[in-house]
Amino acid sequence: MVRVAVSGELFTWALGRARRSIQDLGTRFPKLTKWVAGEDQPTLRQLEDFAKATYAPLGYFFLAEPPVESVPIPDFRTIGGDYIQCPSPDLLDTIYICQQRQDWYREYARVSGERPFPFVGRATTASDIVEVAADMRRALAFDLDERRRMGTWVEALQTFIGQADNLGILVMVNGVVGSNNRRKLDPQEFRGFALTDPVAPLVFVNGADTKAAQMFTLAHELAHLWLGESGLTDVEPRSAPTDLVERWCNLVAAELLAPLAIVRREYDRRAPLPQEMKRLASRFKISTLVVLRRIHDAGGLAGDRYHEAYDEEVERLLSLPRGAGGSFYRTTAARVSERFARAVVTSTWEGRSSFTEAFRLLGFKNMRTFRELGHRVGVAI
Predict the structure, then answer these.
(1) What are the angstrom distances between the C-alpha of 320 and each of 181, 212, 289?
(2) Number of domains the chain is built from
(3) In the Cβ-directed half-sphere of 254, how many Cα atoms lie within 13 Å?
(4) Is-contact 12 18, C-beta < 8 A?
(5) CA 65, chain centre distance (Å)
(6) How far apart are CA 374 and CA 346, in angstroms?
């Protein structure tokens, strides 16, 4: 039986890249220890199976040494001030999928005669935070009084996504790689990213994160579009990034969701903190974490007390049961963005795109699913 000569380093690299160990895959690949040590070599079929198990491109195993992979967009993620190295295959594949969808939509927009959106790149890091946040609210039709009347901040998040979609932004919210439910994304690795483009601006929000965190991530990534700066981020309301772009986007996101002038006016310093957090969260329809951040910004909670309260609230939110995932078609539309789904379905029914291409872009292979998704996004035949 023909064996394939592969350096043991490449097996070690693939395991580390996929966050797996020899023990994890030893049962499936009994000779893996020998492959790593260079004492034996796999067959081509075994190598193909190993590549699939570690989500590594097969061609990489024919290299002389492990490749050095980098994130294909500006990477603003840090831990303790140091930039994160070695992106996971889940992160890389998610970015590649979104780039492919953006490329397709850019051409669709060009053929459809769509013009560049004026909000993309309209601001700079020297722009006034309050003015930019106000501009974003106007463009998005982000009405604070309307949000106040909504039943929950979950409803407000869905409305927020819809407002960005209506403005022309492809908002993709997904907790797995593509439609592979076995490849769950890790919020600790990244929370979202923005791919700026004048006619196909795209925002991705890690749907495996809490709904509370998703609200702030979306606001932060939208700020990236206003800057005209693509970027991968791991921010949260408490973050104090050292990078100028990230710091600016964080400040704009907080001001967009809860204007500091209103928070200062409405915050009751005499009330118990849990009660006030709940009240202000209901008032702005934002997470209690963003409320804590804004109370801190308003001077109502400083130093260690702020960080203690924030950590306690994170623990409380993590202990809450997750809600149901909703209908398959709602989930699918959220994963690819309703705007993108409408465009693909429309293009396919018009004969401009093939069903094969549509299924690849949307992440399924079923004609009935395609029809039902069309109904869900308002394109039926």
Answers:
(1) 22, 11, 14
(2) 3
(3) 26
(4) no
(5) 32
(6) 8
pLDDT of residue 61: 95
Tell whether 175 and 263 lie within a shared domain: yes
69 located within any domain: no
Task: Give pLDDT tens digits for 68-102.
Answer: 888 999 988 876 555 677 899 999 999 999 999 99
List alpha helices for the chain, DSSP H.
8-17, 22-25, 32-37, 44-53, 89-111, 129-140, 144-148, 153-167, 211-227, 244-257, 260-266, 273-284, 288-297, 303-319, 328-336, 338-349, 355-362, 367-376
pLDDT over 70 percentage in the chain: 96
Residues 345 and 271 occupy one common structural domain:
no
Is the residue at 75 inside a domain? no
Tokens at residue 215, please?
Answer: 């609200």
**What pLDDT is recorded for position 379?**
85
Same domain, 155 and 184: yes
The answer to whether 32 touches 11, Cβ cutoff 8 Å, is yes
Domain finish residue from 319, 346, 363: 319
Identify which of 60, 53, 44, 49 has the alpha carbon closest to the alpha carbon of residue 9: 60
Domain that holds residue 231: 95-319
Residue 225, pLDDT > 90, answer: yes
Nearest CA to 236 out of 284, 291, 289, 281 is that of: 289
Helix (H, G, I), strand (E, B) or coil at 205: strand
Amino acid at 122: R
| Mean pLDDT, residues 175-202 taken together | 95
pLDDT in tens, 243-280: 899 999 999 999 999 999 999 999 999 999 999 999 99
Which residue from 283, 284, 292, 298 is spatially nearest to 313, judged by alpha carbons?
292
163 shares its domain with 207: yes
Q: Considering the entire predicted model, what is its pTM?
A: 0.91
Q: How far apart are CA 165 and CA 197, in angstroms?
A: 15
The b-or-e profile of 67-86 (16+ CB within 10 A means b, else e) is eebebebbbbbbeeeeebee
- Does residue 261 share a domain with residue 136? yes
* Terminal alpha carbon distance of the chain: 54
Tokens of 8: 């043991």
Looking at residue 30, which CATH number applies to its domain? Answer: 1.10.260
Residue from 216, 335, 338, 345 nearest 281 by CA: 216
